[in-house]
Specification:
This protein has 3 helices and no strands. The protein is mainly alpha-helical. α1 runs antiparallel to α2 and α2 packs antiparallel against α3. The longest helix is centred in the middle third of the chain and has 32 residues. The protein starts with a helix and ends in a 12-residue tail after the last helix.
Length: 120
C-alpha cells in the first residue's frame, strides 16, 4: 500500500476523532469546541452546535477515505496529488459541515438563544 495514502488516512482519522470528541457533550462552556456567534448565544446552543458539528465530521471522514482510495487507484503515477485531494476535500467538507451546523442552530433557536417550540 502507498505510504502517502496511509499518511492521508491518518490525517482523516484525526479529523474523525475530533468529530468524536465534539459529539460527546462537553462539560464546560469554553475550551475546545465549535465557537461561532450563533453557537455562543447560550450554553445549550453551544452544546448542540458541538454535537451537530461533531456528527458531520464523523460522517465526512469515511467519505474522505473513500475519496483517497479512489484517487490512489486512478492517479497512481501522481502520488503527491493525493495531498492536494485531501486538502481540497477537507476544506470543502468542513465548510459544508459549518454551513449545515449554522443553519440547524438558526432553525432550532431564537436569536436570544432560547429553543423554539416544537423544534427537534
Amino acid at each position: 500500500m502507498n505510504f502517502l495514502l496511509l499518511i492521508c488516512s491518518f490525517i482523516v482519522m484525526v479529523i474523525f476523532s475530533i468529530g468524536v470528541k465534539l459529539n460527546t457533550r462537553p462539560s464546560a462552556y469554553g475550551g475546545f469546541g465549535f465557537k461561532t456567534s450563533v453557537s455562543l448565544r447560550s450554553e445549550e446552543t453551544w452544546h448542540d452546535g458541538n454535537v451537530t458539528f461533531g456528527r458531520y465530521l464523523m460522517i465526512i471522514a469515511p467519505l474522505q477515505i473513500i475519496t483517497l482510495v479512489v484517487t490512489e487507484r486512478y492517479l497512481p503515477e501522481h502520488p503527491y496529488r493525493i495531498f492536494a485531494v485531501l486538502a481540497i476535500t477537507t476544506l470543502v467538507s468542513i465548510s459544508i459541515a459549518y454551513i449545515l451546523t449554522q443553519k440547524k442552530l438558526r432553525t432550532i433557536y431564537f436569536k436570544d438563544g432560547k429553543r423554539r417550540p416544537n423544534s427537534f
